[in-house]
């Protein structure tokens, strides 16, 4: 059984960005130098800056990367999120083995980078034009061989070229965690992460509770986020193959400052810098309305923000607790079948324009079409819904929702 086939996205190639960056970047840190509080490393072109900062009204010092050219402090990455420095004595060094270490004056290490191997020749650290802080061997130009990169350890911000998702070979899992508060970059309550139980799907959690999911990728967009459509600001895509699962985007015009952020209140937003007002504008909040609250209408319920009440039930189902449903507007218990399922006689009903069900416990196959999908699983009692995986070119692939 083929579990992963390839979706090749030709409209962007993330690694090209990185290669381009190396060729023109000149600012480096080597094992005989260091960066003290007050000193910074600036990327070629001056878009990003690495150094020490204090967030909001805090006096704690953190090592981080921010947009260097704008008047509003905008930190996109923090090294020592959970171990702030209490004074200005912080110093960033690179060891001969290629490990970045952040130390106090007394030589206590409060943060260090991590690498699966040691440098075989002279290591250097660079801040690339993409905002990616990397450690590599001096003459190494293949991003695959970098010893470490900050893009693999995201904070709450997804910059262009970063991958949100997993390397299935190494197990590397790049996900976002909100800041605790404007004064505290330590991990807050929200995470946004690719989960890979069934067909991979992004999930936003508050602690362990699922709050939102954009729906499975359908070849063009996430099925539950019609607002994230092709646009003039950026291109985006998802790669799902046997090696990797990730979402990434590329700005159409790299002079424009724009990024995705998981906010402290748990919103997944795109921000765009407006030079005229010298402020960040919320270009889009991916959670649009109440129906984006995970499981609002419960199992076999259907949510439509234009309806009142928002929740209705699918044909053949009734609310599990009718009184709760009608009087308390508590839909979370969902619905149950009016009559028990009979797999040998019952069939499927078609629903269009809906977000696909939670796919984390689904089964999928890129190689068969909708008709084959239906014929294979029509009489299988654990298959409760099916759809195309990819809606392009008339549709292909098969995604099955299973009883869990
Ligand atoms: C580190 O960089 C400095 C400044 O470019 C240079 O003088 C020094 O020789 C370099 N050290 C090593 C070990 O490459
Ligand atoms: C940053 O500002 C400097 C000085 O104003 C300017 O030369 C440079 O082009 C700017 N870089 C970016 C990326 O906007
Ligand atoms: C560093 O890497 C090792 C091995 O890959 C891992 O066990 C450890 O948790 C990592 N430490 C940090 C701080 O990421
Ligand atoms: C995180 O959740 C806890 C427990 O629900 C709550 O007390 C705290 O205020 C939340 N923190 C933020 C930053 O929302
Ligand atoms: C990119 O954006 C910059 C800044 O807004 C603008 O000056 C430039 O003309 C744009 N380039 C293209 C190719 O649209
Ligand atoms: C399903 O329907 C068929 C045909 O009406 C019937 O023979 C069978 O007993 C039903 N099975 C169940 C589990 O109700
Ligand atoms: C139904 O389909 C699932 C998923 O392919 C499979 O694991 C299960 O064995 C099938 N059950 C039957 C009775 O064919």
Automatic annotation (TrEMBL):
Q: Which residues form the Apple domain?
A: 343-404
Q: Name one Pfam family in it.
A: PAN_2
Q: Which residues form the Bulb-type lectin domain?
A: 26-148
Per its database record, what is this protein's job? Involved in sporophytic self-incompatibility system (the inability of flowering plants to achieve self-fertilization).
Q: For this UniProt record, give its keywords in alphabetical order, as a comma-separated list.
A: Disulfide bond, Glycoprotein, Signal
| SMART domains the UniProt entry points to | B_lectin
**In terms of domain of life, where is this protein from?**
Eukaryota
* PANTHER family in the cross-refs: BULB-TYPE LECTIN DOMAIN-CONTAINING PROTEIN, OS01G0958200 PROTEIN
Q: Which InterPro entries does the UniProt entry name for this protein?
A: Bulb-type_lectin_dom (IPR001480), Bulb-type_lectin_dom_sf (IPR036426), Pan_app (IPR003609), S_locus_glycoprot_dom (IPR000858), SLSG/EP1 (IPR035446)
A Gene Ontology annotation in the biological process aspect, one of them, is: recognition of pollen
The leader peptide range reads 1-23
Protein name in UniProt: S-locus glycoprotein
